[in-house]
Write a structure and sequence with these properties.
Elements: H1 4-17, H2 24-37, H3 49-63, H4 68-88, H5 99-115, H6 121-136
Helix pairs in contact: 1-5, 2-3, 2-4, 3-4, 4-5
Length: about 160
């Protein structure tokens, strides 16, 4: 359960964030990851490196205001920082020893969603279907819509 629940939390985060309309969704997520980057400031135990990390994540999150890819990178940076804290023994929640490990499992799930463009579940399904259709397309072969893979009906 220690490994499954964080995946569920990441999926729930993406699902709930999908309710926010674009472009607000991207900008809101940039702010969220910037806040996550400062989570260890109050006692992470790495001294001045906590400030360095926070500055780096803040910059990457700022770039994320206009790019889902940067938001995904910021979540992966936070994942690495979670692992450092888990190994060092300074968890994100002081009374929950494995909280940094849980965060390190959750964050890449969110990052994957961000790398996919922060799409809603409906958009994700359409995106995956479209990718499958494009991958399996043979030049000149007709798809379900009657168009050839070249994109012109009847050609």
């Amino acid at each position: 359960m220690q490994y499954v629940a964080p995946v569920g939390v990441g999926l729930l985060y993406a699902l709930l964030m999908s309710l926010v309309r674009e472009p607000h969704r991207r900008r809101f997520n940039a702010v969220m990851v910037a806040g996550a980057g400062a989570a260890y400031l109050s006692g992470g135990g790495l001294g001045g490196w906590e400030f360095v990390f926070t500055a780096v994540v803040t910059y990457v999150a700022y770039r994320g205001l206009d790019s889902w890819a940067f938001i995904g990178v910021a979540w992966l940076l936070h994942t690495a920082w979670d692992i450092v804290h888990h190994v060092k023994g300074n968890p994100i929640i002081p009374f929950a020893h494995s909280s940094s490990l849980g965060c390190a499992i959750c964050d890449p799930v969110i990052a994957l969603w961000c790398f996919a463009g922060g799409k809603t579940p409906k958009e994700l399904v359409a995106w995956v279907r479209g990718a499958r259709e494009r991958k399996g397309a043979v030049p000149g072969e007709r798809g379900r819509s009657g168009e050839t893979s070249a994109g012109v009906a009847g050609a």
